[in-house]
Amino acid sequence: MRNNLMSSVKATLVVSAVLVCTNAHAWGQNGHRIIAKIAESHLSETTKTKLLPLLNNESLAQVSTWPDEMRSAPGEFWQRKSSRWHYINTSANKPISLNHSHTKNKESVTNILEGIHYSIKVLQDEQSSLDAKQFSLRFLVHLVGDSHQPFHAGRADDRGGNNIKVKHFGQETNLHSLWDSKLIEGENLSYTEFADFINTNNQTLISEYLTSTPTSWLVESNNLAESIYNKNETNISYSYIFDHMTIIKTRLQQGGIRLAGLLNSLFDESATPLVSALKMQTSEKTTN
User: Fold this and answer.
1) What is the pTM for the complete model shown?
2) Alpha-carbon distance 12 to 14, whole Å?
3) Measured distance CA(84)–CA(264) in Å, rounded
4) C-alpha torsion sign, points 64, 69, 70, 71
5) Which helix (H) or strand (E) is 198 found in, with range?
6) Class of the CATH-defined domain 2-284
7) 278, 262 in Cβ contact below 8 A?
8) Which of 102, 122, 228, 232 has its CA 20 to 30 A from that of 52?
9) pLDDT one-digit tens code per residue, 90-149
10) Which residues contact 261 (CB under 8 A, 6 or more apart)?
11) Angle at 58 between CA 272 and CA 153, to 5 degrees
12) CA distance 61 to 66
């Protein structure tokens, strides 16, 4: 399977779409797996059945990290183009336009929003090959996670926080890496434990999360990133964790619920919007 896969909240965010290379893997492995694990528990039985051939005996949690793992693979797509799928950047304190175009092929994707919509389009298209759908599902699972990490809608001039040095209990790291993994790993939980602890069946909360679009997820992330930037905290210890872990847990929880809602909306026509399926605005629906 892996070898086969190789051969607008504020719709006026002003996107500079200045895309810069980054080596960061959003949320790290645990963060992506937490989101996917939560999503698995909110999938309808119809969606689970339809996902089986696309997952090829793997779980959502297993495939959630695949796009990061493949970034060391040979080939122009993985070496020169795939990194653009993972983020969108802006200038400091400037609103970004998250207008998206429906790209016709994976080579032309220039940012995370286009990557999400391209993946949705492939999964909706009955003419898409099995390999293309497997590729797109893996990327979609990953990109929904990325879109909930604040610094994947951060600033271009510091590479989404990668160039901002901070100390985490005296050890040097950077702001992006801190939010990718270090704060999550500091909880000393496996991804399954973490997912179980923050998962929710609160229908009011679920409905709130499902009243959203990929654009609004990135708006939320950008707003959070700007708030964190403006605090300019560089010495990270217990007080920082106390102030920010609730944000991280909420973003992971939202990512999981929304991933399930998006997959249910794609694969189960009977799934009820705002109950088990995402309710996307008409202007953001992807059409073939």
Assistant:
1) 0.88
2) 6
3) 27
4) positive
5) helix 191-198
6) mainly alpha
7) yes
8) 102
9) 877 666 666 666 777 899 999 999 999 999 999 999 999 999 999 999 999 999 999 999
10) 42, 209, 210, 276, 277, 278
11) 65
12) 10
DSSP for residue 273: B
- Looking at residue 284, the DSSP 8-state letter turns out to be G
Question: How far, CA to CA in Å, does 47 sit from each of 4, 77, 200, 287?
Answer: 24, 30, 19, 20
Residue with tokens 């060391």: 72
Instruction: Identify the DSSP state of 272.
Output: P
Residues facing residue 166 across a β-bridge: 173
d(CA 145, CA 22): 16
Tell me phi and psi for residue 149, to 5 degrees.
-90, 120
Side by side, the strands of the sheet bearing 171-174 are 171-174, 165-168, 235-236
Q: Is the four-CA dihedral 265, 111, 31, 200 of positive or negative sign?
A: negative
Cα–Cα distance, 6 to 74 (Å, whole number):
9
